[in-house]
């Protein structure tokens, strides 16, 4: 017999069925919020995976298109690889839950969330986040939870708890906050220049709601939760640490790691590793975990120096940003390019402009979102960190970093009416040593301005780190963390924004949550740093968008026609519009409301296309003069095409002032002639005169 647990959440009923389905999983929650239904399961292997030094957690978010009454597009009528939204949702579920598993746990764990129906008023991503937390909490998998998540929107300055799909899309804030019973553990946000104090208010309003959800989950665990299973610990033996310290004293490790050159540091650690491998050559058990032991020793050394002495590995002050550099137009012939360098992190961004018809089409669960006008893509090749491996396309990390930088710029982009282009920016990582996503934000902002995209304001981003001690009050915030501080620290708090407010946040942590002073301090530190980056670096390279797009970018002319005339422009089976395109070499897009976009690189040909379209949609009046081409000769006259697909007849008597016996005596096929409109003849055809042009 299964049990159902329910609570009211933001005016709607959230219910969870336990032991109704998925009984062979370690934990299963059949989630219902409104009419949105998600099946969340948590499963774990019996034994640890051998030969690894990390926790093998896999989080999946499966979008079933039957959930919104769709059949997948394409030839293969079944769901394929995960969509970008599914990958981003998986990452948002992963980030708050991963720190709550034991650090020495090496069993494979999979959290699977399958969306089975979607109510537009209840976003499935939120239901999946809660389902994953509940399924894991009631399972026998070791987990220091529960955690809970709330989404917060904002419309007309008022907060909306767990907004609908429509409110989420059209509001000024997309905020997701995950919490434990005491602290905030994850923040993800996109915002329309929301001020820092307003953002903090929203975060802690969501944190308060999370406490009611955690009480609800605790009730479920108390009634149906399983006892947590025992597991084989993969912790490094303490005696190994002591043996390592006897060979490599703390002072030697400090000297090895405290350098501003990543390559030097890696070489130092390599030398230490070789020394220890030689010392423990006879002890296979210790050799198998030596890499993890050295990592832990290095981590403890870095954390101690930062926390106690405020000494950073590269010698910077706690609030100091690494050396900055920025330049634009480094790549010839592209529509826009910029490079941003911060220490050993370097990003080159290239902007490409195209007609609106080049928008990305989306086949997902949000029926309101079917296309995407602005795209930011992020690439992270192995050479950027001095490694070698084949390129297999973007992974989840690359997609997540690209989406964060994309979200950062969306609030400042011009509308389609102001700038009728599809925009793609691509960030190529040339060198990486910490927070390439924030460097991508800065580079893509400058690239857009260099391409002539009239963005409303400049956007910059920076990451803030954290090292904590024994108590909540014992912590140090680090401005502009490099890779080592990210690996060994407790937090990666990325914030992007303008001078007015925040446009995006992404917070990852490795501990069990942040106190309010930590959150407020990180947000304030990031504001100070991003303003410094804009004023002292980005504005020196380019301080405003260029007044027009570059010479190699397509130009676009927009005009409005009567929607009832669209058929005349398109012609039968597209004959007319294709003829205009063939003659001028432009690209033409027409929307249902009659907006026509003409895209090309040759201004003369674009003007010609405009002339053709205006001619076609004009209600002809007697006395109008056109230039046309003779396309057909008959005994009684000639047919003149005055626009693609548009013809009129010149009667033999209207060709010349003097009488002629044969049309061929004056005209031949292909002749360009000027004609004046006489109205329509008795057969409804346009009637022209050549001989009366001069008079008119």
What can be said about this structure in brief?
The chain is an alpha+beta fold. It has 5 domains: 3-148 and 195-224, 2-Layer Sandwich (Ribosomal Protein S5, domain 2); 238-309, Arc Repressor Mutant, subunit A; 324-541, GHMP Kinase, N-terminal domain (Ribosomal Protein S5, domain 2, 2-Layer Sandwich), CATH 3.30.230.70; 555-617, K Homology domain, type 1 (Ribosomal Protein S8, Chain: A, domain 1, 2-Layer Sandwich); 625-689, OB fold (Dihydrolipoamide Acetyltransferase, E2P) (Beta Barrel).
Q: Which structural class matches the secondary elements?
A: alpha+beta
Radius of gyration: 32 Å
CATH class term of the largest domain: Alpha Beta
Examine the secondary-structure arrangement and name the CATH architecture of the largest domain. 2-Layer Sandwich
Hey, roughly how much beta strand do the residues contain? 25-35%
Number of helices: 16
Number of strands: 29
CATH homologous superfamily name of the largest domain? GHMP Kinase, N-terminal domain
CATH topology of the largest domain: Ribosomal Protein S5, domain 2
Main sheet characteristics: 8 strands, antiparallel
Query: Helicity level, as a percent range?
Result: 25-40%
Mean pLDDT: 92
**Poorly predicted tracts of residues:** none
* Strand neighbour order, sheet with most strands: 8-7-9-10-21-20-18-19
Distance between the termini: 92 Å
Number of domain modules: 5
Query: Which geometry do the CA atoms define?
Result: elongated
């Amino acid at each position: 017999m299964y049990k159902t647990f329910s609570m009211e959440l933001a005016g709607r009923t959230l219910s969870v069925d336990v032991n109704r389905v998925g009984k062979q999983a370690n934990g299963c929650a059949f989630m219902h919020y409104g009419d949105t239904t998600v099946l969340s399961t948590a499963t774990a292997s019996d034994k640890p995976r051998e030969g690894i030094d990390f926790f093998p957690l896999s989080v999946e978010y499966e979008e079933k298109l039957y959930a919104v009454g769709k059949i997948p597009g394409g030839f293969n009528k079944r769901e394929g690889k995960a969509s970008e939204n599914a990958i981003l949702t998986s990452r948002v579920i992963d980030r708050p839950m991963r720190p709550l598993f034991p650090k020495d746990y090496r069993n494979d764990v999979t959290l699977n969330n399958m969306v089975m129906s979607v109510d537009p008023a209840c976003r499935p991503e939120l239901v999946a986040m809660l389902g994953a937390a509940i399924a894991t909490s009631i399972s026998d998998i070791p987990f220091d939870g529960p955690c809970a998540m709330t989404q917060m929107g904002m419309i007309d300055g008022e907060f909306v708890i767990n907004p609908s799909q429509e409110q989420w899309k059209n509001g000024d804030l997309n905020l997701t906050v995950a919490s434990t019973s005491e602290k905030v553990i994850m923040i993800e946000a996109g915002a329309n220049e929301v001020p820092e104090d307003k953002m903090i208010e929203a975060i802690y309003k969501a944190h308060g709601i999370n406490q009611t959800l955690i009480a609800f989950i605790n009730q479920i665990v108390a009634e149906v939760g399983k006892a947590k299973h025992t597991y084989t610990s993969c912790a490094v033996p303490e005696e190994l640490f002591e043996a390592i310290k006897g060979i490599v004293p703390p002072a030697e490790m400090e000297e090895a790691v405290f350098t501003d050159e990543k390559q030097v540091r890696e070489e130092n650690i390599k030398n230490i590793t070789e020394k220890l491998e030689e010392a423990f050559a006879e002890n296979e058990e210790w050799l198998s975990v030596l890499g993890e032991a050295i990592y832990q020793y290095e981590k403890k050394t870095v954390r101690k120096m930062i926390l106690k002495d405020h000494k950073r590995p590269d010698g910077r002050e706690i609030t100091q940003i690494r050396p900055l550099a920025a330049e634009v137009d480094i790549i010839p012939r592209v529509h826009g390019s910029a490079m941003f360098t911060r220490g050993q992190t370097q990003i080159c961004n290239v902007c490409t402009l195209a007609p609106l018809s080049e928008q990305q089409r989306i086949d997902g669960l949000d029926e309101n979102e079917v296309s995407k006008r602005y795209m930011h893509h992020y690439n992270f090749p192995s050479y950027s960190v001095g490694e070698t491996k084949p390129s297999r396309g973007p992974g989840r990390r690359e997609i997540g970093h690209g989406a964060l930088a994309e979200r950062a710029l969306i609030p400042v982009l011009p509308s389609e009416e102001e700038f009728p282009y599809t925009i793609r920016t691509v960030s190529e990582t040339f060198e990486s040593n910490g927070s390439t996503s924030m460097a991508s934000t800065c580079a893509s902002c400058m690239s857009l301005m260099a391409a002539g995209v009239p963005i409303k304001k400049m956007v910059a981003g920076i990451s803030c780190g954290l090292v904590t001690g024994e108590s909540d009050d014992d912590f140090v915030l680090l401005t502009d963390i490099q890779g080592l501080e990210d690996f060994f620290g407790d937090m990666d708090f990325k914030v992007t924004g303008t001078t007015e407010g925040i446009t995006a946040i992404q917070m990852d942590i490795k501990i069990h949550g942040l106190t309010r002073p930590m959150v407020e301090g990180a947000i304030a530190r990031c504001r100070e740093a991003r303003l410094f980056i804009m004023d002292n670096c980005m504005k020196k390279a380019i301080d405003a968008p260029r007044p027009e797009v570059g010479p190699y970018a397509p130009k676009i002319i927009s005009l409005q026609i009567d929607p009832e005339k669209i058929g005349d422009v398109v012609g039968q089976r597209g004959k007319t519009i294709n003829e205009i395109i063939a003659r001028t070499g432009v690209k033409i897009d027409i929307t249902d409301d009659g907006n026509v976009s003409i895209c090309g690189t040759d201004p003369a040909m674009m003007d010609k296309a405009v002339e053709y379209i205006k001619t076609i949609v004009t209600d002809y009046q007697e006395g109008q003069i056109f230039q046309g081409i003779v396309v057909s000769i008959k005994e009684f006259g000639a047919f003149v095409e005055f626009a693609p697909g548009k013809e009129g007849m010149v009667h033999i008597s209207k060709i010349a002032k003097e009488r002629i016996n044969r049309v061929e005596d004056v005209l031949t096929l292909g002749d360009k002639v000027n004609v004046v409109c006489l109205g329509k003849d008795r057969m409804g055809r346009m009637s022209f005169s050549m001989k009366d042009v001069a008079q008119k």
